Amino acid sequence: MPRPSVDWFALSPSLILLGVGAVCLLAAVLIPPGTRRPLSAGVAAAGFAGAGVAAGFLYAETPDATLEVAGTIVRDRYGALAQIIVAGAGLLAVGVSYGQRTRGSQMSEYYALLAAAGGGMAFLVQANDLMTLFLGLEWFSVCLYILCAIEIDVVSSLEAGLKYLIVGSFGSAVLLFGSALVYGSTGELQFGAIANAIQEQGLSDDGLMLAGLAMMLAGFSFKASAAPFHMWTPDVYEGAPTPVTAFMSAATKTVALVLMLRVLVTAFPGQEDLWTIAVAVIACISLAVGNLAAIVQRNLKRMLAYSSVSHAGFMLIAVAADNELGGRALLFYLIPYGAASLGAFGVVAARERELGQRVSLDNIAGMGWERPLLGVAMWVFMLAFAGLPLTGGFVGKFYVFAAAYDAGLWWLVMVGVIATAISLYYYLAVIRALYMRMPAELQLAPAGGSPPREAILQTTVAACVAVTVGTFFAVQPLIDVAEKAAAQLPF
Amino acid sequence: MTDWLATILIVLPLAAALIVWLLPLNDRAAGSLALLAALAEVGVWINALTRFDFDQGLQFDQQETWFGDLGVSYHVGLFGFSLWLVGMTVVVMAAAIAYAFWTGRVAARAYFGLMLFLTGAIVGVFSAQDLLLFYVFFEAMLIPLYVLVGVWGGPGRLTATLKFVIYTMAGSLLMLAAIVAYGITEGTFDLVDGPTSSNEWFFLGFVAAFAVKAPLTPFHGWLPDAYRESSAEVSAVLSGVVSKAAAYGFLAIAIAKFPEPAHDLRPLILALAAVGLVYGSLVAFRAPDVRGVIAYSSLAQMSLITIGIFAMNDLGRSGAVLQMVNHGLLSAALFLVAGAIERRTATGDFARLGGMARGRPALATVLMALGVIALAVPGSTAFAGEFLILAGIFNTGWGWALVGASGIVLAALYTLRLISAVLHENVGAAVPDEALDLRPAELAVVVPLLGLLVALSVWPAAITEHLSF
Fold it and tell me: What is the sign of the dihedral through the CA atoms of A386, B242, B166 and B273?
């Protein structure tokens, strides 16, 4: 069997992150405990930055999509842009993680797993084959299972890890079974070949293939935490260490949705009548469940978890649009959403460290006046989630609606509009808690001098604000990038 | 050649807001800086007025691509009628900021920054010539208002803000859907170049947003709470300026871009407005407190302005614009005076007010003068505006004009009741003998507004003869 030629450049983002993970693991045994944390965090940050730069070069040097490594991965701008978003999310997640009081002995392992998860994600978005798809998915999922449970002396963290492991494995199994059915029906592994086989062999009504497609959709929805496959999300988001939640909410969603769109348009273009409806329905359910459940939450992390379910719904609208504008909308939406999500969990992490307990709407009362930077930042993130102007969230939502309307899905636009109106209630509840409670209700930070000011966390949050607001003003350059990336998908 | 004047009018207060937020100023310095910026904004507007050519259409036009793939741009400029609305806005905002500076507000930097931000957003609404940009400014108004009411408002402020935001956003989001639909269908979001459309659904999407913001009945559920719970100067801005954004939207977008649906659905909107006019006037007459009267009279006046706009002829339109400016100045001045009364008596209840004219000549004179203009005594500028509106709508259908005229009669009733309940009758329980007359600083805020109203009464043609649409 001939050895396929390997395009190492195309694999460089994944390889950099994998290498960084290995360095961090070595640091865990070779470096004295005192310097482990700064060193591992620094190496991980450098790794994510490096992977982002490599993905940037990959984007610049890939005018046309090509299949690499015997057709198992695809080198294109669509994947490269997703890698850049993942790398950015990873870099910011390192910033959120740095001050976390994880036990010192696990510090290096933590960053090793974070980098390895990033590597898996970077690999996954380039997948062009059912095998690489599953490999990449499990690669980053296994890392995340452990990351969720990394605080082994905290029961809720263990619980989150276990739940994520069980439900996540179930999701992966569904996806794997779906892949197997599609392979069994078409006899092909590569996405493009699957599409050809379906067309040439007249399999478009084949029950096996359709069942496989449905199960794959369900599997992706698990990972993207779209309702009704979202059951794990609130528990895991709440129980996992907040920096891990921050990373998951931004990066996992990115890769799951980016890959979902890639698989659907590359492997199943002939079934678009079916899957656009299916995706639209999942989007509607996600919007309804996410928004309605978020209204009643008091715990901030749970609320943000349901909010992330509803945002999965918004992004699925872009997927359901099944046009090039939709691809553009999805990629653009992910940038401000990811920044706002990381930033919001960053603020939660800051408050958590300050109070030493879970953060709810009650114990952030008055925080806006106590901590002006974090307060204003949280405000910006909530506006971005709600899709209000002066944040990129508005532009993202606008593009999603435009794509859906362009595809003739005007009813989906209306669902999105109603969902947005409902979501205002709980996003504004956060601002209300931060700024508008009576002094008597305020729960200020415990006495004992000023709370720790974490320069790194605050810088990270400020960077998230900059991205969230910047994406409102600098739309043209970003949308050009997203347009060139989406143009390489075969719509 | 690009003329930056419209952009300067928008950016100047926004930049001042950033400075006030970021510099570590004390309360007094923050307030002074904000007031200075607001006055500078008035100066820039006067400069714009002197340079404006009322025989031309769009001026101070500037267009920069925002996102080219969908044809959205940063496009601003002013028409004759929007210039007057901008002028009213900057004057009222300066008065509101001056009033807040004089009364003092906790967390002054945040407060004044938000007021300046709001100024920029409202000016942006009146200058935007791109639908999405218009929407951005329209929503951007909401963000500072939410906080201004929610943080510095009265005891019921949380409910008030919640209602306000949910109502307005429900309307606005329908407008966003309509904007997306219009823009994708027509391939451009530009207000100047964009073609007219005959789609009734798009039209209704816009109407939903403006009907809530104005408000028209039955979309006014947020109004009494918001106007009562805000601080006086924020109520002044809400009823004086923010409501005009809705009337502007009717005029510049709903009718201009959707002439056919506007014509077909005119009876519906006129009916809502007529109901609002009569209902608002009656409730204003029965309202138990000062702010209630002004709030519901505001509902009635906005309905009257809407009637003028949907007369869809020149008379009605010029009357509506004149009345928008009148009502902006008038209702702002009334709310500020109401604030002054509440500062002295800690209540706005008529049952506990009364007899304040004795020994307080300035208060009596100012309130009386405002009242006389508000009830549209012949010769006042409000009379001119309402007369033009009625004349305009008479050409459309005399029945509507009859309702409008009845509204004016009712205005006399509630205005006189307000004046007599505050100034005359027996001295109220809440009115201490030592309550002062209007202080010079308060007069310095209210008298210029009154002066402008008197000037317009003398020469309403300053506006009606200098309009370009």
Answer: negative
Contact between B143 and A420 using a beta-carbon 8 Å cutoff: no
Q: Is residue A2 part of a domain?
A: no
Which domain covers residue A130, as residue numbers?
A: 8-486
Q: Which of residues 214-233 of A touch B (CB under 8 A)?
A: none
- Listing DSSP states for B269-295 in one string gives HHHHHHHHHHHHHHHHHH-SBHHHHHH
Residues in chain B: 469
Residue A322: helix, strand or coil by DSSP? coil
Q: What is the DSSP letter of B67?
A: E
- For chain B, percent helix, then strand, then coil, each to nearest 5? 75, 5, 20
Burial pattern B263-280, b for ≥16 Cβ within 10 A else e, equals eebbeebbebbbebbbbb
Domain count, chain A: 1
Q: Measuring CA to CA, which residue among A477, A467, A249, A476 is closest to residue A339?
A: A467
pLDDT in tens, chain A (491 residues): 677 888 899 999 999 999 999 999 998 889 888 888 889 999 999 999 999 999 999 999 999 999 988 889 999 999 999 999 999 999 999 999 988 876 656 788 999 999 999 999 999 999 999 999 999 999 999 999 999 988 888 888 899 999 999 999 999 999 999 999 999 999 999 999 999 999 999 888 889 999 999 999 999 999 999 989 999 999 999 999 999 999 999 999 999 999 999 999 999 999 999 999 999 999 999 999 999 999 999 999 999 999 999 999 999 999 999 999 999 999 999 999 999 999 999 999 998 888 888 888 888 888 888 888 999 999 999 999 999 999 999 999 999 999 999 999 999 999 999 999 999 999 999 999 898 876 566 555 554 445 567 889 999 999 999 999 999 999 999 999 999 999 999 88
**CA B305/CA B316 separation, integer angstroms:** 9
Distance from CA of B191 to the nearest CA of A (A): 18
Is the Cβ pair B180, A424 closer than 8 Å? no
Please report residues of A whose CB lies closer than 8 A to that of B66. 475-476
How high is the pLDDT of residue A449?
Answer: 42
Q: Is A9 on the interface with B (CB under 8 A)?
A: no
The helix/strand/coil state of B75 is strand
CB A208 within 8 A of CB A308: no
Instruction: Give the ipTM.
Output: 0.92
Q: Show the tokens assigned to B6.
A: 């419209």
Residue B70 half-sphere exposure, CB side, CA atoms within 13 Å? 33
Contacts of residue A382, Cβ cutoff 8 Å, sequence gap at least 6: A344, A427, A428, A430, A431
Query: Please, what is the Cα angle at B147 between A382 and B102, to 5 degrees?
Result: 155
Q: How far apart are CA B397 and CA A464, in angstroms?
A: 57
Q: Distance (Å, rounded) from C-alpha A127 to C-alpha A183?
A: 16
Mind telling me how many Å the CA of A483 is from chain B's nearest CA?
Answer: 9
CA distance B125 to B131: 10
Enumerate the residues of chain B whose CB falls inside 8 A of the CB of residue A417: 173-174, 176-177
Which phi and psi (to 5°) does residue A409 adopt? -95, 60
Helix (H, G, I), strand (E, B) or coil at B44: helix
Distance between B360 CA and the closest CA of chain A, angstroms: 36
Query: Three-state SS for A306?
Result: helix
Q: How many CB atoms lie within 10 A of CB B63?
A: 16
**Counts for chain A of helices (H) and strands (E), in that order:** 20, 2
A476 touches chain B (CB under 8 A): yes
